[in-house]
Amino acid sequence: MFTFTLNPTTAFLRQAVGSFVQMGFREGVICVAPDDVTLVARMPGVGVPVLALRMKPWMFSSFSCAKSVCLAFDLTLFYQNLFKVLKGDLLQLSGSASAYCIHFDLLNYSEKLETRQVFATQFPMLSTYIGRMNVPQLRNHYQVAVGIPAEDFRLLIMKLRQFGVLVYASITATAVEFTVGNEVVIFKKPNQCTIMGAVGEDPVVLVFNLIHSGAILNASILSNKVLLFGQTRGSSVVLKFFFGRLGSFEYYFR
Fold it and tell me: Which GO terms describe its molecular function (predicted)?
């Protein structure tokens, strides 16, 4: 059984879930453990990234989890109901492996500062996983990481997508060169980007696609900084967006 309450991070949650829906994901899986809450979606297909929203339980208004569980549910219904959350509302989600639904409750405070329920609904569970699901992880040992201010990243994506969908990021110790077709955009450190990891004169080349550029831009709106990771193990390329107090939103390109 788990229960957690969000406030005032619901706007970030709605923005993140909107990116899932925008990419065509209809089923999401929420994985809750005593130290972690992750919403993940994936589907088969070339060029379709795995999406993961990693939330920070210690930043919630309240949180309890007796046993790790992963519950699959309808993302579209969830997204539609997130628009019912008004300023000042608390969003409470709860569920368990033995239940057949996830409870969605909106709470508010009365004039006497007593918590009251203002809206309640349920989402039927599509499937249940006991324990932890195999959710992608950013490993501690990655080959390279590039940090770019979110506004600059948005301008970059809007420009590059005019020339194609396959992006090559060639990274050295001093600069990163983004190439789509014949179009090239260069970011130099330290003023335009940060570069960390095992890079030198020989460039490290990371490849990702802009098939879902609209969803990527949507995810960047509430973020101040975007990180581009190249991993020595696991997923080859990851885009990570920081969502304030809620956590982070990650695209894993396969």
Answer: DNA binding; DNA polymerase processivity factor activity
Q: Are residues 99 and 121 in the same domain?
A: yes
For the stretch 164-220, pLDDT in tens is 999 999 999 999 999 999 999 999 999 999 999 888 778 889 999 999 999 899 889
Does the pLDDT at position 45 exceed 70? no
Where do we find the tokens 């309240």? 62
Residue with tokens 């550029």: 213
- Per DSSP, the residues of 100-136 read SEEEEEEEEE-TTS-EEEEEEEEEE-SEEEES-----
Torsion angles phi and psi, residue 32, rounded to 5 = -120, 125
Length of the chain: 254
150 lies in which domain range? 142-253
Of 5, 128, 21, which is closest to residue 61 (Cα–Cα)?
Answer: 5
pLDDT of 114: 60
What are the two backbone dihedrals, phi and then psi, of residue 79, each rounded to the nearest 5 degrees?
Answer: -65, -45
Of residues 164 and 5, more confidence is placed in 164
**b/e per residue, 206-215, with b = 16+ CB within 10 A?**
bebbbbbeeb
Q: What is the pLDDT of residue 98?
A: 83
Please tell me whether residues 121 and 187 are part of one structural domain.
no
How far are the Cα atoms of 52, 92, 116, 148 from residue 8, in angstroms, in the given order? 21, 12, 17, 26
